[in-house]
């Protein structure tokens, strides 16, 4: 049974908003005119396949689009926040131009450093993607920082990431186009840190340490590449409705040298942040900007988010429909690896401690994980942590002798089976051959591989 094709005509300043369920797919084609998807230009007559996607195709001048397949929802909207978004981009681009001139004159290149905050499902990531694409289209190479561990947009969930943007975000597979093993090569590969939780509040001390590590890595890149320094940084964050107690956001502002905080879709949050920045002596020069929430933003259900992250993990191991990659099974003996955990999953409340005793801070406690059946479906970060010589204890203390706190993840493997009688794991890896690294970092992220 053939799919039906419907043509949509957009006038200047309108956008086509589409929602496509998981398990369904539609083909999008630009028939005439000019259009863009979150700032990335559509090629004339090129076919783009969307699945499990909520998105919008915008046209500044008008266009005709052809959509083949069944959308959960599709409609043309004339009221969009694009005027506000383009004004923000123009302001950022003026800062970049000034920074490039300063660098050419032998001065310090300091491009805009933008951090985007707002409630969940307010369009933060869409705005970050649009600003990045506009910058790249003008020859810039901004650094994108993902501080939302709940969303596997760059790589697998439970991680933080930073990457230099050298090309527009792929229309079909998003930021994952930079992360799948076969795509784009090493220069574009993101830097990734295993956090192991979806919410920064689960371990704020560790989260802040990882942000510090990302800031240091970005600083090294900026020092070595004045053009990147002038291109600036754009940071996406975890959705929150109340910044009154959100100290990780303020830590990120300081650590990453943020000078523009963009608040999407929340008047109260804008007011709180504006007052907070004015009251902080360290906040001098930090502008707080308010952006409207797009009417096309969809409130995502818990099931949708679960499906979205499952899709991201599957893309990591098997690529996208357009750029498929192979993953491989491998056998790993318990004695050949060391699985480490940073922090504790469950911390006893202070009320349960003996009278007069205080709970010890365990957010950065490094401990060994003894393999058992609970590891099945776990995603483990492969690191370059040092091997232990024969006779060394597998136990690790809070001094972190292996330096695994803040260590970058080289990649990820999925545990598909634990064979306790043979003392070995069966893992899925995007790289063929035996596992070359010994130290793996445990996180709470699980992935059950399915056929679909």
In short:
23% of the residues lie in helices and 27% in strands. The protein has 452 residues and is an alpha+beta fold. A hairpin with a 2-residue loop joins β4 and β5.
Provide an overview of this structure.
By secondary structure, the chain is an alpha+beta fold. It has three domains: 5-79, Jelly Rolls, CATH 2.60.120; 82-291, 3-Layer(aba) Sandwich (Rossmann fold), CATH 3.40.50.300; 327-446, Elongation Factor Tu (Ef-tu), domain 3. Helix content is 23%, strand content 27%. It has seven helices and 23 strands. The strands form four sheets. It has a seven-stranded mixed β-sheet with strand order 13-12-11-14-10-15-16, sandwiched between helices. Helix 3 packs parallel to helix 5. It starts with a strand and ends in a 6-residue tail after the last strand.
CATH class placement of the largest domain: Alpha Beta
What percentage of the residues does DSSP assign to strands (E)?
25-35%
- CATH structural architecture of the largest domain: 3-Layer(aba) Sandwich
The tally of beta strands, per DSSP, is: 23
Number of helices: 7
CATH homologous superfamily designation of the largest domain: P-loop containing nucleotide triphosphate hydrolases
Mean pLDDT: 85
Biggest beta sheet attributes: 7 strands, mixed
Order of secondary-structure elements: EEEEEEEEEHEHEEEHHEHEHEHEEEEEEE
Instruction: Return Rg in Å.
Output: 23 Å
């Amino acid at each position: 049974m053939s799919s039906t094709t419907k043509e949509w005509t957009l006038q200047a300043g309108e956008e086509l908003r589409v929602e496509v369920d998981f398990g369904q797919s539609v083909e999008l084609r630009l028939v005439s005119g000019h259009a863009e998807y979150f700032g990335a230009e559509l090629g004339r007559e090129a076919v783009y396949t969307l699945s499990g996607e909520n998105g919008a195709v915008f046209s500044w001048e008008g266009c005709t689009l052809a959509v083949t397949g069944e959308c959960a929802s599709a409609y043309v909207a004339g009221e969009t926040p694009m005027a506000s978004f383009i004004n923000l981009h123009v302001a950022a681009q003026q800062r970049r131009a000034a920074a490039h001139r300063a660098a050419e004159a032998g001065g310090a290149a300091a491009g805009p450093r933008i951090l985007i905050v707002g409630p969940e499902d307010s369009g933060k990531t869409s705005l970050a993607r649009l600003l990045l694409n506009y910058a790249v289209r003008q020859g810039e190479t901004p650094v994108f920082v993902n501080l939302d561990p709940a969303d596997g947009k760059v790589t697998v969930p439970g991680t933080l990431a930073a990457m230099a943007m050298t090309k527009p975000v792929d229309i079909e597979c998003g930021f994952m186009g930079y992360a799948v093993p076969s795509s784009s090569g090493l220069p574009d590969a993101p830097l990734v840190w295993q956090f192991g939780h979806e919410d920064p509040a689960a371990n704020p001390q560790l989260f802040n340490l990882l942000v510090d590590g990302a800031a240091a890595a970005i600083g090294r890149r900026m020092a070595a590449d004045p053009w990147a320094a002038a291109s600036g940084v754009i940071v996406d964050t975890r959705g929150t409705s109340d910044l009154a107690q959100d100290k990780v956001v303020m830590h990120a502002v300081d650590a990453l040298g943020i000078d523009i905080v963009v608040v999407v879709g929340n008047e109260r949050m804008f007011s709180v942040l504006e007052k907070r920045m004015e009251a902080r002596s360290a906040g001098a020069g930090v502008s707080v900007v308010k952006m409207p929430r797009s009417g096309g933003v969809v409130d995502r259900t818990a099931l949708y988010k679960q499906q979205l992250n499952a899709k991201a993990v599957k893309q990591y191991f098997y690529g996208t429909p357009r750029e498929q990659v192979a993953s491989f099974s491998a056998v790993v003996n318990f004695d050949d690896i060391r699985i480490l955990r940073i922090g504790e999953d469950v911390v006893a409340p202070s009320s349960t401690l003996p009278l007069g005793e205080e709970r010890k801070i365990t957010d950065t406690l490094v401990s060994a994980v003894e393999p058992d059946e609970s590891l099945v479906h776990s995603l483990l970060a492969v690191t370059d942590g040092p091997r232990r010589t024969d006779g060394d204890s597998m136990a690790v203390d809070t001094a972190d002798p292996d330096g695994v706190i803040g260590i970058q993840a080289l990649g990820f493997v999925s545990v598909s089976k634990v064979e306790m009688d043979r003392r070995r794991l069966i893992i899925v890896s995007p790289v063929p051959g035996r596992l070359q690294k010994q130290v793996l970092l445990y996180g709470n992220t699980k992935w059950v591989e399915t056929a679909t």
